């Protein structure tokens, strides 16, 4: 462990050593600014709300855009880590849809993270209010209930960035360029953890993916279940398998990986064909380890939640590997083979994956809180032959959005980025 004064010295040296530090800005923002859309602020349009939200004023819109631009700089700012060695962008890399191509990421001191870094696309889908009561949220275990809270966790996390939030104001004071950015976003140059969280969250909410071959295909048909003209036969077959039902009712993969917006991502609501995630925590039978020590502790000590995880959006999944919370699968082929024949019994195993693929054939299969004896299950998972597995992988690859992976609005603005 390096003593505190030494650690401080290393940060000061790090900042001073940035090329052209005395003369030029460390980062570059375009003039005029990029436009971040399409949403203004958090998507709080509740289905039950009676009044439409008031349209924002021109001044609010300007501040909102400035907030996203500030968030972009902070996302790539190494000063947010204790020793200046890590930014959010180190582990959430744009060319990988903001995931990390390594199984585990390396934190600021060189230690590895415990879980695989998640893709940060379409986080705006998870609007805070309704999920607080349903006990799900951000991170693999759903522990953060709002994005504003989630983005402050990695900064303080001892492995990831290791910076106490009280130090944020002094840290950002090291670069005088922040004064104007905070002023534009908040009307004053005061730096607080809350403001840093708001800016990071706003930036992340802007990261949406809409230019994949899937989106092109969807735009050409009256309903998602219709074969897409631009798809190969294999991709269309894979799409049918993914949706799980010709009637378009959510089934199979879609029941856990396709939700509806903006509030209810789940099988009970009508499915939004563009939303490739749900937010419930589920057990997929990766591990049969009820009796063993070392299972992921249930959230808030609740055994019903043991080994349940949330899956990040499947958009761009082709480039976000390795896969699963522990990055155990290197390729999409391995993931799909797992669903076909690798699913193991677990007391929290989701109903969709129990008992000979009943849900696979008939759509949504019922409650996921079943207490049935897992060992009584004959055939678990979603049985598929090789051809079907290959078709599914072909379909998953149509979700890649190359534009997003190089969109300058989300790119590293630092001259000397890391
Ligand atoms: C050292 C690597 C590392 C750094 C640095 C890092 N993250 Fe992460 N991030 C991860 C890992 C690993 C996870 C999954 C952690 C878990 O679930 O416990 C994650 C998960 C997240 C999630 C949850 C996404 C979701 O879909 O639920 C958000 C949001 C996030 N990070 C934002 C950030 C922000 C903002 C920063 C910078 C302030 C940052 N991360 C810095 C590795 C990192
Ligand atoms: C019972 C709900 C459920 C079903 C059904 C399901 N999944 Fe998943 N999926 C999950 C969960 C939960 C995770 C994350 C699991 C973990 O990391 O422990 C996941 C992870 C994944 C991942 C890796 C995502 C990443 O970023 O690491 C892919 C790819 C995937 N699923 C594809 C599919 C396909 C294709 C199907 C249909 C054959 C399918 N899933 C069926 C719940 C489900």
In short:
The protein is mainly α and 418 residues long. The chain has 15 helices and no strands. It starts with a helix and ends in a 13-residue tail after the last helix.
What molecules are bound to this protein?
A: heme C
SSE sequence, one letter per element:
HHHHHHHHHHHHHHH
- Which consecutive residue ranges, at least 5 long each, have pLDDT under 50? 19-23, 40-45, 128-133, 246-250, 262-269, 291-295, 356-378
Average the pLDDT over all residues and give the rounded result: 81
The CATH topology assignment of the largest domain is: Cytochrome Bc1 Complex, Chain D, domain 2
Number of domains: 2
Per CATH, the superfamily of the largest domain is: Cytochrome c-like domain
Largest sheet: none
Question: How much β-strand is present in the residues?
Answer: under 5%
Structural class: mainly alpha
Radius of gyration: 22 Å
For the terminal residues, how far apart are their CA atoms?
Answer: 23 Å
Q: In the CATH classification, which architecture of the largest domain applies?
A: Orthogonal Bundle
């Amino acid at each position: 462990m390096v003593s505190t004064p030494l650690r401080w010295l290393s940060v000061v040296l790090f900042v001073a050593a940035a090329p052209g530090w005395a003369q030029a800005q460390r980062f570059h923002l375009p003039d005029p600014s990029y436009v971040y859309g399409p949403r203004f602020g958090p998507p709080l349009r509740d289905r039950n709300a009676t009044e439409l939200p008031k349209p924002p004023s021109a001044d609010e819109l300007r501040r909102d855009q400035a907030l996203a631009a500030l968030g972009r700089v902070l996302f790539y700012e190494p000063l947010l880590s204790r020793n200046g060695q890590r930014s959010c962008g180190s582990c959430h890399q744009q060319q990988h849809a903001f995931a990390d191509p390594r199984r585990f990421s390396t934190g600021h001191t060189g230690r590895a993270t415990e879980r695989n870094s998640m893709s940060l696309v379409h986080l705006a889908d998870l609007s805070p209010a309704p999920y607080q009561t349903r006990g799900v949220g951000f991170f693999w275990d759903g522990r953060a209930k709002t994005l504003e809270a989630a983005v402050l966790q990695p900064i303080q996390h001892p492995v990831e960035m290791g910076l106490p939030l009280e130090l944020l104001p002094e840290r950002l004071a090291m670069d005088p360029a922040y004064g104007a950015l905070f002023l534009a976003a908040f009307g004053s140059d005061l730096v607080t953890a809350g403001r840093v969280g708001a800016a990071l969250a706003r930036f992340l909410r802007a990261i949406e993916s809409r230019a994949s071959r899937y989106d092109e295909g969807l735009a050409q048909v009256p309903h998602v279940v219709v074969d897409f003209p631009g798809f190969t036969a294999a991709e269309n077959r894979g799409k049918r398998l993914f949706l799980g039902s010709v009637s378009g009712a959510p089934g199979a993969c879609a029941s856990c990986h396709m939700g509806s917006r903006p509030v209810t991502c789940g099988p009970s609501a009508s499915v939004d064909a563009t939303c490739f995630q749900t937010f419930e925590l589920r057990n997929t039978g990766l591990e049969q380890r009820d009796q063993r020590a070392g299972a992921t502790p249930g959230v808030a000590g609740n055994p019903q939640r043991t080994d349940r995880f949330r899956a990040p959006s499947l958009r761009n999944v082709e480039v976000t590997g390795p896969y699963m919370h522990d990055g155990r699968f290197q390729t999409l082929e391995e993931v799909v083979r797992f669903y076909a024949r690798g699913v193991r019994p677990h007391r929290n195993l989701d109903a969709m994956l129990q008992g000979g693929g009943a849900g696979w054939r008939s759509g949504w299969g019922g409650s996921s809180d079943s207490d049935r004896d897992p060992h009584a299950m004959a055939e678990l998972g979603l049985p598929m032959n090789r051809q079907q597995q290959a078709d599914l992988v072909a379909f998953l690859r149509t979700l890649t959005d190359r534009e997003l992976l190089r969109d300058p609005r989300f790119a590293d603005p630092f001259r000397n980025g890391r």
